[in-house]
Amino acid sequence: xxxxxxxxxxxxxxxxxxxxxxxxxxxxxxxxxxxxxxxxxxxxxxxxxxxxxxxxxxxxxxxxxxxxxxxxxxxxxxxxxxxxxxxxxxxxxxxxxxxxxxxxxxxxxxxxxxxxxxxxxxxxxxxxxxxxxxxxxxxxxxxxxxxxxxxxxxxxxxxxxxxxxxxxxxxxxxxxxxxx
Length: 180
Known about the structure:
- This protein is an alpha/beta fold.
- The protein is 27% helix and 16% strand.
- The protein has helices spanning 62-67, 82-91, 117-124, 138-147, 165-178, and strands at 6-9, 30-34, 54-58, 72-75, 129-133, 152-156.
- The protein has a 4-stranded parallel β-sheet with strand order 4-1-5-6, with helices on both faces. Strands 2-3 form a two-stranded antiparallel sheet.
- Strand 5, helix 4 and strand 6 form a beta-alpha-beta unit.
C-alpha cells in the first residue's frame, strides 16, 4: 500500500516563532511556559542555560491544520519525546513518533549539512517527506537530492513568524503530488 509522505516537524522557529518581537505575542498564539527542569534540552545551539521557564508561543489552530494536510506527522526537534508532553496538547495534536537524535543532537558537521539532515533521510528510508524548519541550507537541499531516492521538500520557515497560510498551501501541494 502507498503510504502518505512524512512531515518532519521542527518546533522552535516553525511552530514557536521564537524570533518574533519578545514583547509582542503573534495574533492567534497562546503562551506556554515550560520549566527548564522538564527534561527538554536547554542547550539551544550554545545559548546559556536558562533559569527562568522557557517561553513558547504556539497556535492552537496549527494542530488541526497539520492533521488535514495528508501526511504522517513526526517530530524532528530537539524536544524529541517532550514535544508530545508540551507541544502536542497545546496545538491539538495526538502523540506523534519522533526522531531520536541521540548523540547527533546539535553536533555540527564539517560539510555544512545540518545535524538533523542525515538522520531524517535515514528515518524516511526512501519514503517521500517534507521537513519544516528554520535552519536548512543549500547543503541540506543538495544532500537530500543526492542521498534520498524519493522526493523531499525542505521547507524553510521564518522563525520571526512561524508557519503561515502560504506554508500550509506549499505543504498541501507537495502531499497531493506525492500521495494523490
